[in-house]
Design goal:
Chain lengths: 330, 339
């Protein structure tokens, strides 16, 4: 495939300067997203998933954070070097984002219609009336009944699932080519979860946009993703097509993650978990960052950080288990 | 119920307007104000009626309706609101209500008691106490409300900037305000009056600037909590500029502390102005002022107690009503926040 990627992140480094020291939120993260495909970013809390997303949107709060190196190429434009005013034209218009908490992501003092219309007015330069009409269409599209009436309602009059639908409507109102969904279903109950995922999938096919899905739910990943990037402590430890990730995983961290998902057929007394916690970001291990928790750690893991090992064109992992003697294209 | 009452009030206002129309040349500003107040009342009535309709169509209520419903249940606040509406009508209609001028001296009737020509008697210079009190309310309410509006605008602006941008902006604004707040108020008032002379404009300026700290600090506090909410991040994500985020997303969510503080501080401001006038620093004679009347009346407590009783009771009524109303507003808004 010689397709031009929609978004390409090269060696992104996002750093936070705190009173106690320097924390690397993203440490040499490289990603590629093609038009129309879904990339799932998986990892524990604090592994740098959301920091990567915020870096793409150039919304890292400064101070304390800053993007120190690397490039984020979106449709050939380097987002890192853009000024805020230029960035504002991209946000919402070309790249949109959905947040985790539908309960708090809507402004309680504005009607739902106004909130959807706001970005339409801003980016498509429509009048108030046309924007409200567009908002009504969007509500219809995301499957909210009686959209005309709902337009005039406030967020507190809606349920969590409906609010998440409204969030999706806001994000998609300007037909973006990339949608970043930051754990869009974590706060919803399971039936609503699958509805929302199906809706996102349907709209993605309709509008032909790419999706970056940030999640820690392996079930959601299996259901939706084309490609998966597994993050640990700010860097990508394994990356590949979702088939490879699920049936041919290489990194012990990912293997541990998959084991800790309970299947209904398993009769286990104790859920297998990955022992220990994510290391303190101020005092990261010198070698492989997963080494202190890794069941298969070796001597070399303590000393040196592993480089990516390629198993096929797209599938790679950073682990010494698979040796340095493979082809190590970077 | 409210709809019905306000409808009658509206009709009464129209009647009064027709009645007073021939006198309009006497004071067209207050006549205009009266007309606009009446129109406002009419609009309010219509809005209430439409609310009623929507309520029957939809059991869910907007936050504003909920607040109004809670306020309506609070009897004290409603009485206070009634008194305030009554007082503001009195204020606006002052020249129509009393035939006496507040400035004219009647040398034939010095320091008199209640009579049919002078409803609440006259003071030591033969001026009509009722007229002076009425115009005194006018001056006090005018200056008080103007000062609080100014104060709210400047304080909110500074608080929003400090809270939203944080960091150096925050430090600069808040430290400067703390320095400003460290100067004792009366001292400041005396100094400014001594340097620039007395006058209504300067009085408003001093009173409104002296209370900036309270506003800026409270608004900064609520901006700090509001700006951490996800919907602010969501607004940033759709590419809205800082100015619109502050105006459209932060400010409306900080409006309740602003409202409460403003309604509570009107009473306080009126009291401060009366205090300054009592000391001779505020409104200068012969302009009628409640504080000035009180200062004048204390010399004649034995001869004519009406001279101090009338302005005293009036101040009490205004300040009490504003405070009770402010308390009611706070309760109504607070329980909305607690939901």
């Amino acid at each position: 495939m010689t397709q031009e990627p929609l978004l390409e992140i090269k060696n992104l480094e996002t750093v936070f300067f705190t009173d106690d020291g320097i924390i690397k939120g993203c440490d040499k993260v490289s990603l590629k997203v093609n038009p129309g495909e879904t990339l799932a970013v998986v990892g524990e809390s604090g592994s740098g998933k959301s920091v990567t997303a915020m870096s793409i949107l150039n919304l890292i709060p400064d101070p304390p954070g800053r993007v120190m190196g690397g490039e984020i190429l979106f449709q050939g434009q380097n987002l890192v070097s853009l000024r805020q005013e230029e960035m504002r034209k991209i946000r919402g218009n070309h790249i949109a984002m959905i947040f985790q908490e539908p309960m708090t992501s809507l402004n309680p003092a504005m009607t739902v219609g106004d909130q959807i219309a706001e970005s339409v007015i801003l980016h498509q330069h429509l009048g108030k009336k046309a924007a409200m009409k567009k908002a009504e269409e969007m509500l219809q599209l995301v499957g909210i009944p009686a959209p005309t009436q709902r337009l005039k309602e406030y967020p507190h009059q809606m349920s969590g699932g409906m609010r998440q639908r409204v969030m999706i409507a806001i994000a998609l109102a300007c037909s973006p080519s990339l949608l970043i969904a930051d754990e869009p279903t974590s706060a919803l109950d399971v039936t609503i979860q699958s509805q929302i995922l199906k809706l996102m999938k349907k709209l993605q096919e309709q509008m032909g946009m790419a999706v970056i899905l940030i999640t820690h739910d392996m079930g959601v990943v299996a259901e939706t993703a084309d490609k998966v990037a597994v993050m640990y402590c700010g860097s990508i430890v394994e990356y590949g097509e979702s088939h490879d990730i699920f049936f041919n995983s290489k990194h012990p961290y990912l293997q541990g993650l998959k084991q800790s998902v309970l299947s209904i057929d398993d009769m286990v007394d104790e859920l297998p978990v990955i022992k220990g916690n994510i290391p303190d970001p101020l005092h990261l291990p010198q070698g492989c960052r997963f080494e202190p928790r890794c069941p298969r750690a070796m001597d070399i893991c303590k000393k040196e950080r592993p480089r990516p090992v390629y198993f096929n064109d797209k599938h790679h992992a950073c682990c010494w288990l698979h040796g340095g003697d493979h082809d190590t294209r970077s | 119920m409210v709809r019905l009452k306000s409808f009658y009030l509206f009709m009464l206002s129209i009647l009064l307007q027709v009645w007073w129309f021939p006198m309009a040349s006497l004071d067209w500003i207050s006549y205009g104000l009266f007309t606009s107040m009446t129109l406002g009342l009419g609009l309010f009535t219509i809005a209430m009626a439409r609310n009623k309709k929507r309520q029957t169509a939809n059991t869910m209520k907007g936050s504003r309706e909920l607040m109004w419903l809670r306020l309506k249940k609070n009897k004290t606040a409603m009485v206070a609101m009634g008194v305030l509406i009554f007082l503001s009508y009195l204020t606006v209609l002052a020249p129509f209500i009393t035939p006496q001028s507040p400035l004219d001296t009647d040398w034939g009737a010095l320091s008199q008691g209640i009579s049919s020509t002078h409803w609440l008697g006259t003071d030591d210079m033969g001026r009509d106490i009722f007229a002076r009190a009425l115009f005194g309310i006018r001056v006090a309410m005018g200056i008080g409300v103007t000062a609080v509006v100014l104060n709210t605008l400047i304080g909110t602006f500074l608080g929003l900037l400090a809270g939203y941008y944080g960091g150096k902006t925050d430090t600069l604004i808040m430290r400067l305000l703390e320095v400003w707040n460290a100067i004792p108020f009366i001292l400041l008032a005396i100094a400014i009056m001594a340097a620039l002379g007395t006058g209504i404009g300067k009085l408003i300026l001093i009173v409104s600037l002296s209370n900036l700290m309270a506003f800026a600090r409270i608004i900064r506090g609520s901006v700090l909590t509001v700006k951490e909410h996800d919907y602010i991040a969501a607004a940033r994500v759709i590419g809205i500029s800082d100015t619109s985020i502050i105006l459209r997303h932060v400010l409306p969510n900080c409006i309740s502390p602003i409202l409460v503080l403003a309604s509570l501080s009107i009473g306080e401001t009126i009291l401060v102005i009366a205090g300054l006038s009592f000391l001779g620093l505020g409104i200068q004679p012969p302009m009628p002022s409640l504080g000035g009347m009180l200062a004048n009346g204390q010399q004649f407590l034995h001869e004519n107690f009406l001279m101090s009783l009338v302005p005293g009771v009036t101040i009490l009524l205004i300040v009490l009503s504003f405070n009770l109303f402010g308390d009611g507003v706070r309760d109504a808004l607070d329980s909305r926040l607690n939901d």
